[in-house]
């Protein structure tokens, strides 16, 4: 029985070679780097608008200035961690946590206040509908999880 279990597990598990797993991990890492740098720069370039939009969010309205600087700084730190070879895995874990946090916040806002709130994501991403945001974040969460799985 044990032989059959290991054969089945081995045959159906997807495990890229070490070289390919590094390439895949790096590709996903740089996708997050582009995303975080782009959205952080967009938020900093339109900080007043970003603060105004955050003011519409009941949970954040008292912390608008702090959050308007903290979020893009955290995004830039995550991007930096993904670039430095020794901290890439920490950066990917941070990216996963950020994306889960963003997704949970979007879901909370949608279901408690409705989809009429403006988006504060920054840049072209702010043009997505809330439903598209949910899909976008879910795909990024899956990619981050996959990247971590193949590197561990």
Automatic annotation (TrEMBL):
GO cellular component: a single term: membrane
Transmembrane segments: 21-41, 61-84, 96-114, 134-150
Residue ranges of every copy of the Methylamine utilisation protein MauE domain listed in the record: 24-148
Keywords, sorted A to Z: Membrane, Transmembrane, Transmembrane helix
GO biological process: methylamine metabolic process
Key word Ribosomal protein present: no
Short name of one Pfam family: MauE
Localisation per UniProt entry: Membrane
Membrane topology (UniProt): Multi-pass membrane protein
Entry protein name: Methylamine utilization protein MauE
Organism whose genome encodes this protein: Pedobacter duraquae
